[in-house]
Amino acid sequence: MKIANTHHMKEFGWTSPSGKFAGAGKQVSEALGRVHDSTDLEKRHPFDVEILRVPPGKTPYPYHSHSAQWEFYHVLSGTGKVRHLKGKDAIGPGDAFLFKPGEPHQLINDGTEDLIVTVVADNPIGESCHYPDSGKWLVRSPKSRLIRSEPLDYYDGEDARPE
Question: What is the mean pLDDT of the chain?
Answer without folding.
Answer: 91
